[in-house]
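User: I'm curious whether this sequence folds into something compact or stays loose and floppy. Could you predict its structure so I can see for myself?
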Amino acid sequence: MALTNILLLSQIAGYVVALILSLCIMVPMSLHQNEFRGHCLLFSTGIWQENDGQFMANWASQAYCNYTILVGLVLFLMCAVQIYRLSMLMYRGEDSSFLSAFVDVVCSVLLTTLTLIAAVIITLGFMTWCQCMTKRFPSCELAAGNDIDKADGIDTAGFHIELGAAQFGAWSSLSVWVGLSVFAVLKLLRYHQLENMKVSMYRERQRLIQAGDRSSQPMHS
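Assistant: Here's the prediction. I'll summarize afterward.
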């Protein structure tokens, strides 16, 4: 039965993809914060000094980067747990219960929302930083690798690639988690339909038993 359970296999495949994509959020953002000496470029602004060409940054809160890293970590752990749990169910030829299916729906919707927020933060925050970079450079990509802020000692070599990877990971994760939410809802609906079928079959059986009792009463008389 496990091999024919397409929905369960689809869920496992989805969680494997989501696990990989969570690393695309967590790893680049962690590298970025390390290279920027703990600063977070998301929503950071600043002014270009005319005398030395340096960028005087007005750093935004680290909470923006910390949130995206935390979301990536939560997604990674959730995917790892679900891959193990669903793989064990498939190996045993079983499926999750109605309660666990309901919990899956709630968790999937919650994590989809958290991922959406992270994706928006990364995209809008990166756009804010790039608007400042394009005041001095033709493009944000060309600003990478330039020693624009000696005062803070930041390493700008990889920020464009790292934020681009995090942005890709966040939006791709969102699409995967939307799919996982749909799978979870479909499984819950299937359980609901099976429960309705059981109730209908029980009522029909009771009706047939009662009808049989009524038809047998005249024979005894």
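Summary: The beta strands are 45-48, 55-58. The CA atoms of residues 191 and 197 lie 10 Å apart.
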